[in-house]
Specification:
Keywords: Coiled coil. Residues 15-49 form a coiled coil. This protein is an all-alpha fold. The protein is 59% helix and 0% strand. The chain has one helix and no strands. It has one helix spanning 19-52.
Length: 58
């Protein structure tokens, strides 16, 4: 037995944030983006080392 769902329009949520909180969130976002770039670079280096060390199959 399923319950019929009435479709409702999406609701908009409004929040208040202080300027110092916004600045902190932006700083954290920037730090996380830098960390992602560093990890991607590290991973790419690992993949290149692994692919370069494989013996050729004949």
């Amino acid at each position: 037995m399923s319950t019929a769902q009435m479709s409702r329009p999406p609701q908009t949520l409004y929040v208040s944030i202080r300027r110092d909180e916004l600045r902190q969130l932006k700083d954290e976002r920037d730090q996380l983006q830098q960390e992602v770039l560093r990890l991607r670079s590290h991973l790419q280096g690992q993949l290149e080392q692994t692919s370069g060390a494989r013996p050729a199959l004949c």
